[in-house]
Design brief:
The structure holds 3 protein chains of 3 kinds. Chain A is built from 15 helices and no strands. By secondary structure, chain A is mostly helical. In chain A, helix 13 runs antiparallel to helix 14. Chain A is flat, with a radius of gyration of 25 Å. Chain B contains 12 helices and no strands. By secondary structure, chain C is of the alpha/beta class. Chain C folds into 2 domains: 179 residues, D-Maltodextrin-Binding Protein, domain 2; 195 residues, Periplasmic binding protein-like II (D-Maltodextrin-Binding Protein, domain 2, 3-Layer(aba) Sandwich), CATH 3.40.190.10. Chain C contains 21 helices and 13 strands. In chain C, a hairpin with a 4-residue loop joins strand 4 and strand 5. In chain C, helix 10 packs across helix 11, helix 11 crosses helix 20 and helix 13 packs antiparallel against helix 14. The longest helix of chain C has 20 residues. The chains are: A mainly alpha, B mainly alpha, C alpha/beta. Chains A and B meet through helix 1, helix 2, helix 5, helix 6 and helix 7 of A and helix 1, helix 3, helix 4, helix 5 and helix 6 of B.
């Protein structure tokens, strides 16, 4: 089947381009070059994913899931996490990418320090943040007490605050990566454009609105979508910081899935993720259209 | 005029500092807090002070000297992390650059479909794939083998790598390979002699990305690796969560040390990082 | 091109190759020990077995929180180890595995040595299989733990009290720490310290293990020996209301740190170690054992070692509970840690042989004692070992276990593992202290959830 496709394609191409033999060979080469990736894709994506769906096939699982009082809240949390955390993160990344284009010696040093959160492993860092937030002896509340003589908040005891802090940790950890990408985008904008603008006397806002943004808006939207999809599986920032607490009000799908897994409810673990597919499917569709252009 | 210019410069500088200082604090406070644990004697870090009364390098000595039960294989596990990350980076580069070459330069039919399929990978959360991936590796006979983790990481890193490399290679002039083809070079020679050298900045950036991804992986690492001597350091750090009373200061110390090699790699390659990671994704 | 084809072929070969299983090899998965002495004892036993039988043992050790996910994945993939042990099996999966028929019946190994075990401990390994429609020993007991009270004697002194001032009756006992010790220590130090540390976090095992002891104190039985729920009995509701009231009082009165509702397992230890709380209750004596470990830790300075020694020998006390509200002595809830041989194991006979060997007093005892008193033995002879009389912490543990124990509900109805894992108990506490729901209503919700999950 593959062969016939190639042949017919080649024929069409050769008519158009004029040196038929080279082109048909080109298609074979193309397949050869893409073969290693296809092998990996079939072996490590198609097969496991198919198997996962097979594990999640029983309708009873979805009834059980619906009856789990935590599930609905978890789905909402995941949505909030995706929409709020990612957009805030990308907006900050966009802003900071502008900051890092400045050529100062100290900005260069800062840029190196700035990537550290990306490099540190999650377990010690997030546990350290947890210790920081301890309301009785943690550094933050000690400081608040010394400055204001009042007790700081009980940070992780309020569901909204706790989920927000998980998002803050997530942002802290992945901000460097996205800032770097947007920075690269900015650096790729031809310098002459800015020079021309400054001759015209355009202010910073105008430069951004008329030069920078039009140039990197595609990249920005793409990164936002990619980041959302990456984040659906973010397990560490919630698991290590709040553990889903207080009272299971801050779970996201990834942490809930692992909880089912530990109890050997593999089907439930899979089903819980299948349920979030409607959530990400539009994202993915949008994404594919965009990226493969 | 000059005074106004001076004023403008000073205010611009002040504006930059106004952004720079919060960025520094935001980035460094959690890391400083980790570092505080690392230089504090046992338990002193829990006193909520901003600087320990008796700073010490003892924790570093314990970690470097592998003197704690959880860290007996510290250097070996560090080496495993390095080996697995490097292998992931190299393999990702090979697979992704070949695929990007086929899609972008050879204008392979169905290239767009391959790109779409690749990106499909990202819509499956790692937590969802954990059990199926384990089963898959078991069927391939790769369990408890470094290759299981490396291949899993290549799977995760490749789509993004292909996307970046494709974008970058679209920017190379078409005449280049047409000329080479007419000269009688095979696509493979073209790939090796012309394409790869031109792509070096993007390759370095993508390689670093893959390396860091594997360096900090936890979920797949503990699932797919087994022996104490085969696991990567993040998995070993998981031991500290084993019981309700752990030497937290050693966990922080080890974590702090673990962050240094990637930071150094980034520092060494930073020139390429910014140009390579998005090359071509900008409308010129 | 040829090179690529060769590569693809190599890849295909690599993927299809299934490693041959050597016959004289036994795969063992064992949780990573917390102390070196634990793992050393395990290694010694394994080496001894290897020398005795010529069987090669391939040991893999994982952190405790990874063991379950890993075992579940292995079960699903059909690549199980021949024998496995984790501290989490009993509370999370052993009951379900037995119910689903995934475990090998170990009766032929355990029944002949039945008399060597303490009866309650062994009974927890007697699980129901719905596949075989029978109860049998589908797991093997290794060690056990229960709830202890730990307090700082020096802080108690600072607050103006002696150990003999501690009341022995239920109500007075808890009121003493909250209403007397806390004001006393705050006055003496001028710091915002707390009389007690009550773990109440949902993402912790401490919280439900502690709370269920309060349930025991009110003589509440949630299930009968066949796993049938007893929650329709009005006495159960009354008991649960009393237990929940008592357990949430310290928080509402401000006698436990505000963060208690978010504590994970390490947090009550940390709060105790840095002397934020005078007293806490903890499953195992890990709090005291940490200071003993410091005292023996060669990498610490002489002063640190001395401080550890002093805290262990003089400053920290380990104690049992006061009398129950009805005046009778407390019966302690024991969590017996079990290991398993999977039904899918390829070498069950060999695994059982290894199990038999491991269960010998000489092999099991050093492993349990290697944990500095955190775990209590399940065999009668090891319980009488001099180790448990060596200091007052261990003596206290010994006395508690000898006072009589009772097992967890999940050994009779595995679905309680789900309730424990989602921590329905800590959620009820949170309803009361954070959402200000009346205790009565929180208990109704709790009972409804128990029925829904375990009915």
């Amino acid at each position: 089947m593959t062969t016939t496709t190639i042949d017919s394609n080649t024929r069409r191409d050769s008519r158009r381009a004029g040196f038929g033999f080279a082109l048909s060979e080109k298609q074979v080469w193309g397949l050869l070059f893409v073969a290693p990736y296809l092998a990996i894709f079939v072996g490590f994506v198609v097969f496991p994913v198919g198997y996962a769906f097979w594990l999640a096939r029983s309708p009873q699982l979805y009834v059980d899931l619906y009856n789990d009082p935590v599930f609905l809240r978890t789905a909402v949390n995941t949505l909030v996490f995706l929409i709020v955390a990612i957009n805030v993160k990308m907006a900050i990344a966009l802003f900071l990418s502008g900051f890092f284009t400045h050529k100062r010696w100290w900005v260069k040093i800062l840029a190196v320090l700035f990537v550290l959160p990306w490099a540190v492993p999650s377990i010690p860092t997030i546990i350290s943040v947890r210790f920081m937030l301890n309301p009785e002896w943690g550094v933050i509340n000690q400081l608040i007490f010394q400055l204001t003589a009042e007790d700081g908040p009980n940070w992780l005891n309020d569901p909204t605050l706790a989920l927000s802090l998980s998002m803050v940790v997530h942002i802290w950890k992945s901000l460097p990566f996205w800032t770097l990408i947007l920075l690269a985008g900015r650096l790729a904008i031809p310098h002459e454009l800015y020079e021309a603008a400054s001759v015209d006397g355009a202010g910073a806002w105008h430069r951004f609105a008329y030069i920078t943004w039009p140039s990197i808006s595609t990249l920005y939207v793409t990164c936002t979508l990619l980041s959302m999809i990456f984040t659906v599986g973010d397990f560490n920032s919630v698991y290590l910081l709040t553990g889903g607490g207080p009272a299971d009000l801050t779970h996201v799908l990834a942490t809930l899935g692992i909880r089912y897994l530990r109890l050997d409810q593999v089907g439930m673990a899979m089903a819980s993720i299948v349920c979030c597919l409607p959530l990400i499917l539009p994202l993915v569709y949008f994404m594919m259209k965009r990226l493969s252009r | 005029m000059t005074r106004r210019k001076l004023f403008r410069e000073v205010s611009a500088e002040a504006g930059l500092l106004l952004i720079g200082i919060p960025v520094l604090l935001w980035t460094m406070i959690p890391i400083y807090h980790m570092f505080l644990f690392a230089i504090s004697p046992k338990d002193a870090a829990f006193s909520g002070q901003l600087w320990p009364a008796h700073p010490t390098v003892r924790n570093f000595e314990i970690v470097f000297g592998q003197k704690h039960h959880f860290l007996y294989n510290f250097w070996l596990q560090m080496w495993n992390s390095l080996a697995i990350s490097c292998a992931t980076a190299v393999l990702t580069l090979m697979v992704a650059s070949a695929a990007a070459f086929a899609i972008s330069r050879l204008r392979m039919k169905g290239g767009r479909l391959v790109m779409n399929l690749a990106l499909f990978t990202y819509f499956i959360p790692a937590a969802f794939l954990a059990v199926p991936m384990y089963k898959t590796m078991g069927m391939y006979g790769l369990l408890n083998n470094d290759w299981a983790l490396i291949l899993a990481m290549v799977t995760v890193a490749s789509p993004y790598a292909i996307w970046i490399l494709r974008q970058a290679s679209d920017k190379l002039p078409v005449e280049l390979d047409e000329a080479a083809l007419i000269d009688g070079a095979s696509p493979f020679q073209l790939f090796r002699m012309v394409y790869l050298p031109l792509m070096v900045p993007s390759l370095i950036a993508v390689g670093t990305y893959a390396l860091l991804l594997a360096w900090n992986e936890y979920l797949y690492a503990f699932l797919l690796l087994s022996r104490e001597t085969a696991i990567t350091l993040p998995v070993a750090l998981g031991n500290f969560l084993s019981a309700d009373d752990s030497p937290w200061e050693l966990l922080m110390t080890a974590g702090f040390i673990y962050a240094l090699p990637p930071a150094a790699i980034y520092y060494a390659f930073r020139r390429y990082m910014s140009s390579g990671l998005t090359a071509g994704a900008v409308k010129g | 091109m040829r090179r690529i084809l060769a590569g693809a072929a190599a890849l295909a070969v690599a993927f299809s190759a299934v490693p041959g299983m050597a016959q004289d090899k036994l795969t063992v998965w064992w949780v990573k020990g917390f102390y070196k002495s634990e793992d050393d004892a395990l290694y010694a036993a394994i080496k001894k077995y290897e020398q005795k039988t010529g069987t090669k043992i391939e040991l893999s050790q994982y952190a405790v929180q990874d063991m379950n996910a890993k075992s579940v994945a292995a079960l699903d993939a059909g690549t199980v180890p021949d024998i496995a042990y984790s501290d989490t099996y009993d509370v999370q999966t052993a009951g379900k595995w037995a119910f689903d028929g995934k475990l090998e019946d170990l009766s032929d190994v355990l029944v002949p040595m039945k008399d060597r075990f303490e009866a309650v401990a062994l009974s927890t390994a007697n699980l129901y299989s719905d596949k075989a429609k029978k109860k049998a020993y589908y797991a093997f007991p290794i060690k056990q733990q229960t709830l202890h009270i730990q307090y700082w004697k020096d802080m108690l002194g600072q607050a103006g009290f002696k150990e003999s001032d501690i009341p022995g009756t239920w109500k007075e006992y808890w009121s003493f720490w909250c209403d007397k010790v806390q004001p006393g220590i705050r006055k003496a130090t001028g710091q915002r310290l707390f009389g007690t540390g009550f773990p109440m976090g949902v993402e912790s095992t401490d919280s439900f293990q502690s709370f269920l002891s309060w349930v025991d104190a009110y003589n509440v039985k949630l299930v009968d020996d066949n796993g049938k729920l007893l929650v329709n009995d009005p006495a159960v509701k009354t008991g649960l209301v009393s237990a929940l009231t008592d357990y949430t009082q310290p928080y509402l009165k401000g006698c436990t740190p505000p963060s208690s509702t978010t504590w994970k397992d390490p947090d009550n230890n940390v709060a105790f170690h840095n002397k934020t709380t005078v007293m806490t209750h903890n499953y195992t004596i890990s709090i005291a054992a940490k200071w003993l470990d410091d005292a023996n830790n060669e990498t610490l300075t002489a002063e640190q070692r001395a401080a550890g020694r002093k805290a262990y020998d003089e400053l920290i006390a380990t104690a049992g509970f006061p009398k129950k509200p009805d005046g009778s002595p407390m019966v302690y809830r024991t969590a017996v840690k079990v290991g398993v041989i999977f039904e899918a194991s390829k070498q069950k006979a060999k695994a059982k042989d290894f199990l038999k060997f491991l269960m010998e007093e000489d092999n099991l005892r050093p492993y349990v004692e290697g944990a500095l008193g955190r775990w209590f033995p399940v065999t009668k002879a090891s319980q009488e070992s001099p180790f448990w009389q060596a200091d007052k912490h261990r003596k206290a543990v010994y006395d508690q276990f000898k006072a009589g124990t009772t097992p967890f509900e999940f050994t009779k109805n595995y679905k309680f593992t789900i309730l424990n894992n989602e921590n329905a108990w800590a959620k009820a506490m949170n309803r009361v202290v954070n959402e200000k729901v009346p205790v009565d209503k929180a208990v109704d919700e709790l009972i409804a959830r128990i029925k829904e999950v375990a009915g």
